[in-house]
């Protein structure tokens, strides 16, 4: 792999991996390390720049991430983001960080660059941008330290909140907002300015090398052993199986588990895709009732995921033993690891069925640094057709997560499966399906009164959620036209047990993509 010239110090942000993804998009390799490993790495590798991520803690907390101050002694460019900015202020003046509600900001924010301030970080951006903010504290004033004298370079709320500061002579820059996320409308100019113009890095990440690296790295880890890979039919696991099959040959055993929670006609579609991708795929069906029985014991979202995960792990272990496998290859993405709290010190959002199974098998996660849109690009680069590369994501537990507030039963799974199929067909008919990043059709376990055939009915409500995103770390609603909503509603309420249809376009955050 090419030399890594940018170090990202992970301070607990949900967006730390997004910084790395954005740098890859711009053409630069980077690495992520926790604070306690950063100093030694800098000494050994001499990077050209350091980025301090955001984080959920407050710099004045006793258990806040401890960044070694010695990183400043190397005189290499530093970019502090959110928590990283607060830390740069706090080490110079402990009174400079707000602890009051006026400093809080969650969501979109209009950033205004200070007039007369020519910052290298904001070159090419004009007078301001719309950005994404997520912080409980903020910097009250630009601190004046013995070595670093900062000046304010951007503000929001009519100058009341400091959004950026810098000490240009020391090449230290800081922003309170998140330049790495899609909602910050700078076209990645800020990160590019820092890495290319301030740090002086040269582009060394090329998409054509990705597939080769994934194959070679996995082969190196596996050695002469055998691995299994569960193929869900989604983009991630299917693309990974297609990449690794020609590299590993008989050392890789691919299979799919019919959990009972799959979409209509899913197994047949997956078999067709696998055949076209030259994946030798085995279908395992005998555990379907066990999944339904186990998950149906609870209506709590995390408990459902945990019960699904337990049965899923049992099936994996049984398959591994039958093949004599020592390793399991997972199509786990960066998003999964972040939401499950498995990356750095990021907070747990939801348990993922395929993260940290602890089955006594060695896990290999070749896609753990990548996001959904990147894997779609791999699918296209590998020659997989648009049926795969353009398919919408589907959670591992599938339709089990789309029955909300009532116990899962075979009858309800069939009802949600049919509703999901009907909504999908309507969206395809109106040529909207491929414009939507993900569509969720969920049964809400709240019965309401309705009228059908001049008689009273008491039935289920359904929610239709359509969103658009690049990396699934943040999403925004994809608003459907009125006539499409009317067609979906009239189609779904034809079912005797469906009374109402709601539409949900809430952003993430605060909502997650799925309801559970």
Characterise this structure:
The protein has helices spanning 16-26, 35-45, 83-90, 189-198, 210-222, 235-248, 266-276, 288-295, 301-323, 334-339, 372-381, 386-389, 410-429, 482-492, and strands at 6-9, 30-33, 49-52, 78-81, 105-113, 128-135, 151-156, 161-167, 172-175, 227-230, 252-257, 281-284, 327-329, 362-364, 403-404, 438-452, 455-468, 476-477, 498-504. It is an alpha/beta fold and 516 residues long. The strands form 3 sheets. Strands 2-1-3-4-9-8-7-5-6 form a 9-stranded mixed β-sheet, with helices on both faces. A 5-stranded parallel β-sheet has the order 12-11-10-13-14, sandwiched between helices. Strands 15, 16, 17, 18 and 19 form a 5-stranded mixed β-sheet that branches. Strand 11, helix 7 (266-276) and strand 12 form a beta-alpha-beta unit. The longest helix has 23 residues, at 301-323. The protein has 3 domains: 6-198, Rossmann fold (3-Layer(aba) Sandwich), CATH 3.40.50.880; 207-389, Rossmann fold (3-Layer(aba) Sandwich), CATH 3.40.50.620; 409-504, GMP Synthetase, Chain A, domain 3 (2-Layer Sandwich). Mean pLDDT is 88; it is low at 341-353.
């Amino acid at each position: 792999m090419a030399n890594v010239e940018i170090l990202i110090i992970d301070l607990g942000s949900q967006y730390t991996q997004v910084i790395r993804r954005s740098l890859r998009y711009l053409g630069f390799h980077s690495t992520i390390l926790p604070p306690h490993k950063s100093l030694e790495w800098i000494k050994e590798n001499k990077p050209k720049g350091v980025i301090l991520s955001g984080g959920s803690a407050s710099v004045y907390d006793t258990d806040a991430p401890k960044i070694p101050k010695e990183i400043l002694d190397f005189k290499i460019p530093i970019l502090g983001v959110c928590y990283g900015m607060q830390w740069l202020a706090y080490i110079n003046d402990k009174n400079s960080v707000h602890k009051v509600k006026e400093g809080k900001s969650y969501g979109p924010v209009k950033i205004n660059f200070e007039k007369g301030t020519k910052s290298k970080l904001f070159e090419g951006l004009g007078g301001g941008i719309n950005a994404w903010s997520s912080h409980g504290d903020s910097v009250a004033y630009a601190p004046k330290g013995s070595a670093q004298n900062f000046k304010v370079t951007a503000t929001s709320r009519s100058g009341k909140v400091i959004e950026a500061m810098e000490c240009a002579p020391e090449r230290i820059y800081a922003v309170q907002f998140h330049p790495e996320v899609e909602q910050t409308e700078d076209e990645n100019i800020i990160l590019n300015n820092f890495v290319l113009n301030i740090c002086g890095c040269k582009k060394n990440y090329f998409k054509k090398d990705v597939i080769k690296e994934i194959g070679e790295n996995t082969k190196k880890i596996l050695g002469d052993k055998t691995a299994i890979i569960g193929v869900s039919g989604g983009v991630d696991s299917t693309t990974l199986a297609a990449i690794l099959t020609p590299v590993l040959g008989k050392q890789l055993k691919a299979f799919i588990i019919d959990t009972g929670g799959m979409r209509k006609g899913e197994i047949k579609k997956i078999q067709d895709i696998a055949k076209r991708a030259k994946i030798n795929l085995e279908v395992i069906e005998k555990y379907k009732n066990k999944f339904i029985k186990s998950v149906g014991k609870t209506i709590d979202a995390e408990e459902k995921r945990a019960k699904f995960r337990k049965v899923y792990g049992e099936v994996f272990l049984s398959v591994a033993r039958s093949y004599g496998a020592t390793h399991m290859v997972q199509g786990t993405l960066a998003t999964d690891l972040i939401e499950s709290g498995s990356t750095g010190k990021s907070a747990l959002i939801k348990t993922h069925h395929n993260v940290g199974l602890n089955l006594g098998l060695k896990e290999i996660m070749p896609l753990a640094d990548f996001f959904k849109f990147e894997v779609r690009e791999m699918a296209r680069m590998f020659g997989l057709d648009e049926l795969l590369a353009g398919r919408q994501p589907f959670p591992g537990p599938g339709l089990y997560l789309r029955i909300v507030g009532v116990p899962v039963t075979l009858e309800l799974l069939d009802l949600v499966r049919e509703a999901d199929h009907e909504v999908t067909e309507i969206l395809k008919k109106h040529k909207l399906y491929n414009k939507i990043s993900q569509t969720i059709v969920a049964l809400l376990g709240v019965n309401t009164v309705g009228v059908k055939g001049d008689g009273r009915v008491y039935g289920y409500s359904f929610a239709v959620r359509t969103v658009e995103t690049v990396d699934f770390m943040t999403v925004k609603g994809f608003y459907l036209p009125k006539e499409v909503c009317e067609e979906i509603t009239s189609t779904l309420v034809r079912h005797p047990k469906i009374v109402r249809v709601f539409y949900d376009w809430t952003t993430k955050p605060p909502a997650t993509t799925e309801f559970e």
